[in-house]
Amino acid sequence: MRDVLIESWDALHSAVFENVWDPAIMRYRNNRVYRGMSDGQWALTPSLNRACPQDLSLEKILLRSFMKYGYTELQGCNSFWELVAMGQQFGLPTRLLDWTYSPLVAAHFATEDIDYYDRDGVIWCVNIEDVNANLPPSLRQKLSEQRADIFTRDILEDVAHNFTSLQALSDQPFALFFEPASTVNRIANQYALFSAVSDPAVTLLDLPESECFVRLIISKKAKLEIRDKLDYINISERMIYPGLDGICKWITRRYAALGPKYHHEIKQSGKDEAP
Q1: Nearest of 139, 134, 117, 123 to residue 216 by alpha carbon
Q2: Domain coordinates of the chain in residue numbers?
């Protein structure tokens, strides 16, 4: 695993657009995906492992309860993978992790919480091809047949219709990425996809491909610059969370004070003037 320190908006752009030129197609393309977090010390731990560390088998009960009590909103959800993706999007503890194809959407999540401006943030990056290299043969073959790098609901259901059948594909734990259908606007707006591990007791960092991960460490001194410039290009809660909830989140952050601790540390560091 490699760390890259980001101390400005320009440094962020340089890092995320490094080596994206593909001479074979004469276009700027890459197979990296990104996950932004407010605290650089946080690991890639799914919400299920944080909420139920004492008993991960509660996963089935959580999903069953979600289907039962969310029945009205979930009537059009006829796929296990679509169901678990919907749960993840709305806060249900699952083994999934949210990722995005957009490095700037990831930068939003790394800078959205002003209560964390006194510490570094992080954007995790990984090349999908490095993860796919460790897939069971049946899953690699399915991607090859579809000429795809990412699983969709339909491609994945042809091989594994739930977590139990996914784990049965290999004796060794593995991870995959899948892209949900854009059943709600926030999935499309966040350019979202999810990672899933075959064994909930194993995290991404426990797998061999973790050596291929890159962490872009967003310096606390650069957070405000990056945050404000993201707002200028409309990468904000208004776009990330369509609707009134997103508007209210954006207004709250935009007009909230950053707090004396942040201002004291910035002044002490000599960054009280704009670059």
Answers
A1: 123
A2: 2-269
